[in-house]
């Protein structure tokens, strides 16, 4: 029997004569093969990971991120959900946009991201991805999918901020403070 790991042959020779017949030699070789497989696995064992404390979210595969757009000098905030689509890694984002947002939108995006991940965990590739295209208008996490009303209009990527409005993370210059 040959059993090679890290370019070393860990297998052995099982003669019929030594083991008292063909069947006994085969059983001994198969038993030793199982032992070696347990001692020297070929790849990492898949484990279910628990959420680590002090992460951005308390759920596996769901997180919150603030990404700086250097060209616009603005910050985009979004929740992301990692999953595997057709055995390939994929990410679904639920963006809060570039503008200041209220707590309702933040909670809505958070709950929608968790709903997406839980649905994907339960259904896998059979998940209906199309229903999440209108996530900003509908509460997909509530039964019956009631509407979600935004209190203010979201600013698109190319639009400027209205006069006097600023994002919470934008720093005022000394000239602006003196005025």
Describe this structure in words.
There is one protein chain. By secondary structure, the chain is of the alpha+beta class. It has 2 domains: 4-39; 62-158, no CATH class. 27% of the residues lie in helices and 19% in strands. It contains 4 helices and 5 strands, in the order ββααβββαα. It has a 3-stranded antiparallel beta sheet, with helices on one face. β4 and β5 (88-97) form a beta hairpin. The radius of gyration is 28 Å and the shape is elongated. Mean pLDDT is 77; it is low at 168-174. Residues 170-179 have a biased composition (Polar residues). Residues 159-168 have a biased composition (Basic and acidic residues). Residues 152-179 are annotated as: Disordered.
Which band does the percent of strand residues land in?
15-25%
In spatial order, strands of the major sheet run 3-4-5
Radius of gyration computed on alpha carbons: 28 Å
Distance, first to last CA: 85 Å
Q: Report on the biggest sheet.
A: 3 strands, antiparallel
Query: How would you spell out the order of helices and strands?
Result: EEHHEEEHH
What does the average pLDDT come to? 77
Uncertain segments are: 168-174
| Shape annotation | elongated
Total separate domains = 2
Oligomer: single chain
Structural class by SSE content? alpha+beta
The total beta strand count reads 5
Q: Please report the number of helical segments.
A: 4
Give the helix level as a range of percent. Answer: 25-40%
């Amino acid at each position: 029997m040959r059993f090679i790991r890290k370019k070393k042959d860990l297998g052995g020779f099982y003669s019929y004569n030594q083991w008292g017949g063909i069947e006994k030699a085969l059983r001994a070789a198969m038993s030793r093969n199982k032992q070696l497989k347990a001692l020297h696995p070929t790849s990492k064992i898949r484990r279910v990971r628990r959420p680590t404390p002090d992460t951005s979210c308390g759920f596996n595969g769901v997180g919150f991120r603030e990404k700086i757009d250097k060209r616009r000098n603005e910050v985009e905030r979004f929740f992301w959900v990692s999953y595997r689509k057709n055995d390939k890694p994929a990410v679904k984002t639920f963006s809060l946009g570039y503008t200041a947002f209220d707590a309702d939108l933040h909670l809505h995006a958070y709950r929608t991201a968790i709903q997406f991940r839980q649905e994907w965990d339960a259904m896998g590739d059979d998940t209906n991805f199309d229903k999440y295209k209108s996530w900003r208008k509908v509460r997909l996490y509530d039964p019956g999918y009631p509407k979600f009303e935004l209190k203010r209009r979201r600013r698109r990527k190319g639009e400027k901020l209205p006069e006097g409005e600023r994002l919470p993370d934008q720093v005022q210059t000394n000239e602006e403070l003196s005025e």
